[in-house]
Amino acid sequence: MIRFDMDGCRYYRFENLPADQVDHAVFTRLGGASVGAYSALNLGGTVGDNPEAVVENHQRLFEVFGRPYESRFDVWQVHGTTLVYSDRPRPRDQKHQPADGIFTDNPELTLIMRFADCVPLVFYDPVKRVVGLVHAGWQGTVQNIGGLAVDYMRQRFGSDPASLFAGIGPSICGSCYQVGEEVRARFLQAFGADALDFFAERDGALYLDLWLANAFCLRKAGVVQVEQSGLCTAEHLDEWYSYRKEKGITGRFAVVIGLKHDEH
Ligand SMILES: [Zn+2]
To answer: Tens digit of pLDDT for each residue in 128-186?
Structure first.
């Protein structure tokens, strides 16, 4: 990914996501108004942080990102597989709907999701002009949410998986993400022997590589262009929130994407 620093905030962009067609950023935790465990750019409204700081952080993020705060569309991320389309922003007084994937073909919208170890999947179809974000923790991953997202784009927008861009964003890596035997059992049930590659054993402990598992799901669904951020949240607490490493008391960083207006 490519790193940018602006007005005290730091964000990253996928190298293969065309900057002339898509506004996109993975914001680090730097540059916000939150303090303590939530320092500083926490976007999570239900994690115990001061609500006023969270609102200020949202506004600051959109200022730095260069798109209107009112353009945002977000959902309540629940570790399921519900994927939703929207062609209008979420009004301030409207509750979040539960979902773990959001898509739009409207350049007036900015999609935003929140993360702290779970895998952000970023989608762009340059042909049909569609963007999407997916939240893939182990529960979404074992249910193949990446593959379901590709199927959704194919059915809803006529996307050809071969022309899609997919990015696997900053999240907990396979060396840091220790899981229980029951998690491996679920993956073996879902993916068969292919899932054995997602796991490693070290010193009697079991580790799951969510990056590998998600790349597998995306490629199986026909996506050719998959970019790995290779950035581990648990190893870089100076830049990222890590639910696992910080034992649950932490904030959420934001991934944002929106289509630029077509100039043709
Ligand atoms: Zn790691």
So the answer is: 999 999 999 999 999 999 999 999 999 999 999 999 999 999 999 999 999 999 999 99
Ligand 1 centre distance from Cα of residue 177 (Å):
7
**The one-letter amino acid at 226:** V
213 CA distance to ligand 1 middle (Å): 15
What is the residue-averaged pLDDT of the chain?
A: 97
Confidence of residue 264 (pLDDT cuts 50, 70, 90): low
180 alpha carbon to ligand 1 midpoint, in Å?
Answer: 17
Are the C-beta atoms of 6 and 64 separated by less than 8 Å?
yes
In whole angstroms, give the CA distance from residue 64 to residue 7: 7
Residues sharing a CB contact under 8 Å with residue 261, sequence separation 6 or more, in sequence order: 107
CA of 10 to the centre of ligand 1 (A): 20
Residue type at 41 in one-letter notation: L
Instruction: Write the pLDDT tens digit of every residue in 75-100.
Output: 999 999 999 999 999 988 889 999 99
- Ligand 1 centroid to Cα of residue 199, in Å, is 14
Cα(204) to centroid of ligand 1, in Å? 18
Q: How many angstroms does the Cα of residue 200 sit away from the middle of ligand 1? A: 13
Domains annotated on the chain, with CATH: 2-259 (3.60.140.10)
- Kindly tell me if the per-residue pLDDT of 237 is higher than 70: yes
Q: Give yes or no for a cis peptide into 40 (omega within 30° of 0).
A: yes
Around ion ligand 1, which residues have CB less than 5 A away? 173, 175-176, 232, 234-235
